[in-house]
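Exam review. A common question shows you a sequence with its structure tokens and asks you to describe the fold in words. Practice with the pair below. Do the first one on your own.
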Amino acid sequence: MDRKELLEAVGSANRLYQLLNDEFEALKQQNLDLFERIQKEKVEIIHRLSTFSPKKDNQNFSDNQIAHPADAEWDELMELMKACKELHLRNEILINRKLDATKGALQALHLEEPTSSVEVYDRLGKISRGGKKSGYEEV
């Protein structure tokens, strides 16, 4: 990886870090439109970062153009990527908690309570009353 690519990678990693923080805020506020917009740019940046790799041979570059793992920029990139991984895991935990809460709410709506007047969608997308009906109620 030459120095220019390394600086581009650091810039991309900084942007990814910012997007992951924005994603967390969008999730906390349940702003799904913003969350979806973030995903597109996030995927592009991750793809771009995946194309960066250290050069195994330096036949086209002089030594001062090649980025070495001992460079400060390389250390910065590695630290940023580590921080991005931690932010991604934090966001994943929040998403999983929200999914669990939603699943719990849906289960509560489907409790077998004959007096329930809550209407929910069944697996076929049809509206059904909360709770299961006995055979004679279905007829």
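Now try the second one, then compare your answer with the model answer below.
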Amino acid sequence: MTEQPSESPWLAAYAMHSSASAGREHPEKTHPYRTPFQRDRDRIVHSSAYRRLAHKTQVFTGDRGDYHRTRLTHTHEVASIARTVGRVLRLNEDLIEALALMHDIGHPPFGHAGEDVLNDCASETGGFNHNMHAVRIVTLLEDRYPEFPGLNLSYEVLAGQRNRVKHDRSPGALPLLEVQVVDAADSVAYDSHDADDALELGLLGWDELLELPLWCEAVRRVQDHYTALDQLQLRRAVIHQLIEIMVSDLINTSSQRLEEAKVDSPQAVSHCSGLLVAVSEPLQAQMAALEAFLFERVYRHPTVLAERALAGEALREMYARYYGQPESLPQAWRKKLDAEGVARTVCDFLAGMTDRYALEEYRRHESLT
């Protein structure tokens, strides 16, 4: 049997080495050829909640075709970007990948519309937050191993996800660099692909995006290299260049901050005065302008708002039905009622649904009334 691989030769001193992991709630034997964070990644990938991301809304619902991103494809893009940054900074790529693959696993059907509805419906039991729900999934709701509930992930992965809930950036509470990388990669991914999807679906016009300095810079760089692109080729090249601009700035700025901070351990990172993995201030302002634009022109587009309202109403009605008739829940969920209460159990049940299954259940209930 081979020995567990060592990460030390290629990781920086400030990276999180799996050999220094605080372990798991339920102790397990060391695996002969996978590090703890590799096992975390694999457990997330094989979970039911992860597979369901393929049919959960990112921004746009599935009846608009199959080009736009789902929660799963968004997750893959975040993981890809984060691993690139992590490799250059000599961080733990396995931990980064586990964090990235888990980061949106707690989203309910219908994206933020579904989250808003469940948060309102479950207000009596603490509301609903997709980041915290991800922790519930991997510590309690997934049922894949006879030895323990959930996935028994390492404390570092759980802490990274919990940090997304608290978002504490004070000295002494800053997250691991691997967590910071995933947060930054998330912003890069949705800033680029939400604009791409909106253009594809006709919710935005090309000229509207030319109002934004960051978009204009990406267009300029593309046109410096190519002179005869059709509109589709131009759009795709601009999206690629947009990601290149943000990732390159992120790597350069973060490398400089790490050098100046002179951190020599993960523990030292937590006591810094601010994030070490971040884009430069000029780019941060340009990204903020793009995000504000997308919020007003895309996320609050009348068509998107109408779809959100319909989806939210369907989820709200299902919550009311199951809350009033908890005996109609599937047997596996009825078993949770005594321990979790009706409100939390119904909330957990609905949050696990895909968009498609939620709509099918809603229509089935409607046909019975």
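Model answer, second protein: Residues 231-261 form the longest helix (31 residues). The mean pLDDT is 92. Full marks require stating both points clearly.
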